[in-house]
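Researcher: Here's the sequence for the chain we discussed earlier.
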Amino acid sequence: MSKSPRVIRLTVINDLVSTSQSTGGGCLSYTCSIPYQVCPNCYIGHRELLHALATVAESNLPVHFEIEHRPFQLINKKCLCESKTVDKRSFYVSQLGEEKWVTMEKAFKLWTEEQGINM
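Model: Thanks. This is the structure I predict for it:
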């Protein structure tokens, strides 16, 4: 007699526009729409989550994921000028400071190179 799969519920809060839907055919059916302006950390976390889910699916563990997405607007509209385009680098430097942004930018670059992603 086979056991029914254990259900693992995850709640994801980030600035991606995401939807998920469980199906009986696999451990997860997943679609995601990524807006133009997105927090690099949210995108990295999203990719890592998808990688982890794929690894679990390949291992044939008796688990089923139910993912609830709760969108969160990370950058308050008051910080952005709606009448003009905002340069991403300039925005982050103004919010974080040059030194912190340079450190984060190096980490993002290293991660994207390792993953083969043009970000």
